[in-house]
Amino acid sequence: MGVRAPEAERALTWRALLMYLFVIAVMHPVLIYNWLVNGLWGLAGLNSWAFILVLAWITARTGNPLTKGEIFALRMIDSAGLMYTGYYFTYLLRNMYFANSEIAKLFGLQEEIPAFFAPKGQDFIRVTLTRTFFDTAWLQPILATTLVPFALAVSANYILGLLAYSMYVREERLTFPFASWDAQIMIAFGERSSVKVRTITLAILFGALYGFMTNGLSTIFRFSIVPRLVVDFTSLIENILPGAAFAFITDFSNYVVGFILPLRYTALQLAASISIFVIGNYYVTVNNMWPEEANWQPGRGVFWNFNMSTVYFWNSFTLGWGLAAALLPLVFRYKTFVRAISNLARGLSGEEVEVKWLNAKYLLTAYLAIAVISAAFVEALAPGFPIYMLLLFTLGISLLVTLLQTHAAGILTPTSVPYMREALIYFSGYRALNIWFIPADAMLYTGGAGIAQQLLQARIIGVGMKEYTTMYFLLATLGLAGSFIFTSLFWNLFPVPGYAYPYTVTGWPVEAMNFWRMQEWLWTGYLFRTTWIISGFGLSALLYAVSELVLHDFSIPVAFMSGMLLPVYVAIAYFVGSLISNMISKLTGEKWWNENKGFVAIGFWLGDGIVSAFLMLMQLLSRSIWLLPY
Fold first, then answer.
1. Residue 65 contacts by C-beta under 8 Å, 6 or more apart in sequence?
2. Which helix (H) or strand (E) holds 140?
3. Average pLDDT, whole number, for the chain?
4. Which residues are registered as beta bridge partners of 247?
5. Which residues have C-beta within 8 Å of that of residue 392, sequence separation ≥ 6?
6. Is 249 helix (H, G, I), strand (E, B) or coil?
7. Rounded to whole angstroms, how far apart are CA atoms 568 and 172?
8. 394: helix, strand or coil
9. Gap between the Cα atoms of 166 and 465, Å rounded
10. Do 296 and 283 form a contact (C-beta atoms < 8 A)?
11. DSSP of 481-533, one letter per residue?
């Protein structure tokens, strides 16, 4: 019999449940409509915090303010609900367009598209006329690309998140700057700390003012006092360093990120970004390594240099680097990993809890069952694909990627290994094309890092494991249900693609072109450069050994990798932000700044984001008016 944990903070109250339903009914259709009209994912800064701030003000005036547990329940809407499963059924319509567009015929690949990807031929014509998902032609696509992957991913990510939490929160005690400060803001509003709320409010106002001076004035009056620009210096250095990509950014919100990030790690980010996109690009260029279809020329600028070098060279290098950075901690710190597994039963508070399923035996058995089901499911859709590769996907690579992402979030910002699924499929030797149309969620589970951060926040706030688990699965299910309801509604009102949803007419053809071109590049292995992958793995392994054995900081390779995925101007902004943070600390006193810098940074983003979201909503409304018959 375990020891009961202290009484947990109530989160899933009747008010939280009502807000779930309200957000699904009001915010969810706006999200989908914004994507169909503008092609934008999300609503800029209009996340759950915007609703929380309004609700906190209203409930405080009524004498029954929100608790920190309720605020946490509402914050989960973003990561576990709308932003996770909210677009699933809309993606089905886009897949149908991809499969039946002229672009698919142009690439000569339409006959290769399996039935489980989207309706084709006469089925496509019929469902286009009836505009409903209640058609037998949708049975396979909905099951194969939505429902089954959803069930597998939601379950697997939950278990991987628990393990990552045990490893990097409980055992390694990483700081998780963003998740931790987000939780502190929830506590500030929930406990109504006047000093902390005042600091956050001032930061929100300053962020809103900055947002108005930049985005607001440029949107309304077509000028800006403080423009948000990327100042490209590539042309000034390419005579000396051909191929190099170098620029600065004037957007202050990028510098604010560095306020809460450790200076030593942002310095490593900057060093990595310069090493890759300045020195590395120079090496590629002087050795004539650019492919014919993307040959470097002077004057292409920072964006072209960054994007093309990433696609053709640095994705492969980073893939190898990330594998080593994820794998070697399990080798050098295997005892910590074993402890993390055995301590799964300790719950969030660190004490034993009376939750029967929360132990290593049950969780690992469930994860193994998910892996077997996933392998059988994928094998049924792609007969002949190596079973050992499928098990490697679910049991091995999913774990490594989750631990790597969690490690990165624990020291800086979340990052991941690019094209991991695609590389494994290609190197498996399987050459049929059907495997490429199976969603990544059916075989590779990469959402555990988000779960680990939510669990950290739940522990900080005092929410119990049972209640967190209930909210997680409830929100994921509500997001999927809302996606079905509102996608069906918009499709029933007007054809998709169609004039009523401009982006489906202007943007989907471009997405289709990119989709089919990328598919061709991936299944031919054109983008996977074995030498670069091996080089990345070797250098990462060497740096890890030095970091672990000499410098005693096993996070250095992960910090370095996060810089490999950042443009130089963003890495500079983060580093300068960290320097500014250190300077402010000396001026205001280290104790005060360390207790408030997260309130300042996140408050600024909230204010800036709310202005951006308001402007986006106004633009969305103005683009909708022309649909009226007058």
1. 56, 59, 192
2. helix 139-142
3. 87
4. 232
5. 424
6. strand
7. 30
8. helix
9. 13
10. no
11. HHHHHHHHHHHHHS-SSBTTBHHHHHTHHHHHHHHHHHHHHHHTTTT--HHHH
For the CA atoms of 579, 454, 365, 155, what is the dihedral angle to 10 degrees? -120
pLDDT at 7: 55
**pLDDT, mean of residues 143-172:** 93
Give strand pairing partners of 409.
none
- CA nearest neighbour of 611 among 28, 185, 220: 220
The answer, yes or no, to whether the previous bond of 65 is cis (omega within 30 of 0) is no
**Which residue(s) pair with 463 in the sheet?**
9
Report d(CA 399, CA 411) in Å as an integer.
Answer: 19
Across 354-358, 457-461, 566-570, 589-593, least confident range: 354-358
Structural tokens at position 579: 């320097």
How many whole angstroms separate alpha carbon 247 and alpha carbon 572?
A: 9
Nearest to 274 by CA among 574, 571, 573: 571
DSSP annotation of 170: I
Return the sign of the alpha-carbon dihedral for residues 501, 505, 510, 516.
Answer: positive
Looking at residue 629, its pLDDT comes to 41
Kindly state the tokens that stand for 352: 């034993």
Alpha-carbon gap, residue 589 to 437, rounded angstroms = 56
CA angle 364, 365, 369 (to 5 degrees): 115
- pTM for this model (two decimals): 0.91
- Nearest partner of 153 among 495, 451, 385, judged by Cα: 451
Q: What is the pLDDT of residues 158-188, one digit of tens each?
A: 999 999 999 999 999 999 999 999 999 999 9
Average pLDDT over residues 377-385: 92
Q: Return all residues near 506 (Cβ < 8 A) that are at least 6 apart.
A: 39
In the chain, the percentage of residues whose pLDDT exceeds 70 is 93
Closest CA to 253 of 607, 605, 630: 605
Residues 6+ apart with CB under 8 A from 37: 501, 502, 503, 620, 623, 624
| Cα–Cα distance, 515 to 326 (Å, whole number) | 29
Single out the residue of 181, 248, 212, 228 nearest to residue 413, CA to CA.
181
Q: What is the largest CA-CA distance in the chain?
A: 73
Q: Output the pLDDT for position 6.
A: 45
Residue 452: its pLDDT value, please?
A: 94
Confirm if 174 and 410 have CB atoms less than 8 A apart: yes
Read off the tokens for 600: 């300042």
Query: Is residue 154 within 8 Å of 366, Cβ to Cβ?
Result: no
Residue 462 three-state SS: coil
Query: Beta strands of 295-438 (E only): which ranges?
Result: none
Nearest alpha carbon to residue 411 among 265, 209, 237: 265
Which amino acid type is present at position 419? Y
Separation CA 363–CA 451 (nearest Å): 15
Q: What is the DSSP string of 222-240?
A: S--SS---EEE-HHHHTTT
CB-based contact 141:116 (threshold 8 Å): yes
Residue 254's φ and ψ, nearest 5 degrees, are -70, -35
Of 166, 178, 168, 185, nearest to 56 by C-alpha is 185
Buried b (16+ CB within 10 A) or exposed e, 225-251: eeebebebbbeeebeebbbbbbbebeb
Distance CA 116, CA 136 (A): 12
> 316-339, pLDDT tens digit by residue?
999 999 999 999 999 999 899 888
